[in-house]
Amino acid sequence: MANRAPHTQQSTEQLKQDLNHLTQTIEELVNATADDSRSNIKEMRERAEKRLKETRERLESRGERLYSDARDSIGQQADACDQYVHDNPWSSIGIAAGVGMVIGMLIGRR
């Protein structure tokens, strides 16, 4: 887990930079439209579209990485739980019975 912290911080910083660049480009586009110079508007629009596309691709990539990391982590946790149950069957039965009793009592109160 400690290994993921620098990666997460780096991703957060990159996201901040991407959004900052996109914001600057949009501001430039807004300022360019105030001039009503057709060539200037076209150039700013192209830059804004390019940065928007780049930012979208980076966000999608990060989302896919986060999904993959979460899926791997859940898989590892499920494997660890399965191993615990195999190593400690009676403890697992006791825990399951206790949880079942608590849930039964909570449902019974309704």
Automatic annotation (TrEMBL):
<keyword id="KW-0472">Membrane</keyword>
<keyword id="KW-0997">Cell inner membrane</keyword>
<dbReference type="InterPro" id="IPR043605">
    <property type="entry name" value="DUF883_C"/>
</dbReference>
<keyword id="KW-1133">Transmembrane helix</keyword>
<dbReference type="GO" id="GO:0043022">
    <property type="term" value="F:ribosome binding"/>
</dbReference>
<dbReference type="Pfam" id="PF05957">
    <property type="entry name" value="DUF883"/>
</dbReference>
<feature type="coiled-coil region">
    <location>
        <begin position="12"/>
        <end position="65"/>
    </location>
</feature>
<dbReference type="InterPro" id="IPR043604">
    <property type="entry name" value="DUF883_N"/>
</dbReference>
<dbReference type="GO" id="GO:0005886">
    <property type="term" value="C:plasma membrane"/>
</dbReference>
<comment type="similarity">
    <text>Belongs to the ElaB/YgaM/YqjD family.</text>
</comment>
<feature type="domain" description="DUF883">
    <location>
        <begin position="82"/>
        <end position="110"/>
    </location>
</feature>
<keyword id="KW-0175">Coiled coil</keyword>
<keyword id="KW-1003">Cell membrane</keyword>
<dbReference type="InterPro" id="IPR010279">
    <property type="entry name" value="YqjD/ElaB"/>
</dbReference>
<dbReference type="Pfam" id="PF19029">
    <property type="entry name" value="DUF883_C"/>
</dbReference>
<keyword id="KW-0812">Transmembrane</keyword>
<protein>
    <recommendedName>
        <fullName>DUF883 domain-containing protein</fullName>
    </recommendedName>
</protein>
<feature type="domain" description="DUF883">
    <location>
        <begin position="13"/>
        <end position="59"/>
    </location>
</feature>
